[in-house]
Known about the structure:
Blueprint: E1 6-10, H1 11-24, H2 27-35, E2 39-43, H3 52-67, E3 71-74, H4 88-96, H5 107-120, H6 127-136, H7 141-158, H8 164-180
Parallel strand pairs: 1-2, 2-3
Amino acid sequence: EPNRKIAYVKGDEFTIQLVKSIKDGTAEDFRTKYRNVDLFLVDDIQFIAGKQQTQNEFFHTFNNIYEAGHQIVITSDRPPLEMSLLDDRLRTRFEWGLLVDVQPPDFETRMAIISRKADSLGLKIPEDVAAFIAGKLKDNVRQLEGVVKRLEAHANLTGAPITILLAENAIQDLSLIHISEPTRLRR
Length: 187
């Protein structure tokens, strides 16, 4: 439905944008941006916990969207009950909805993810190589897809066959990249 208005924001970015809008005198534009949507997607909502002004603004934004009969989807790294710095009025609203605990994919699902990504890239990955990757990377779908992309790049650049050794190198490259990236601190 191309006419639907959708807003997506990360919890910490919501705070940053709110502070900037107050500083710049554009708070009303901020409210309009988030309150007049058909679907509001918020990732990592736990980052607004403990920030009173942000929580107050989010409370009113949530109510406005909810009362308009529109949809709100929120993600966090823990259930609302475990967010000790979250206002009770927000916690109860978050608990109104459907709570889903998303766990890492099982082996078969990881194999399917690898296969689907390879197919989308026009890449043929031998089953033993896919099983090796699925056995090594268990928690993160993005890492699975990243390794498949690395295998595809290597295959395109060198023309060499895709082997377990090549997959092992791609996984090692991934862990080197992960180590060098800054980590997000939890509050």
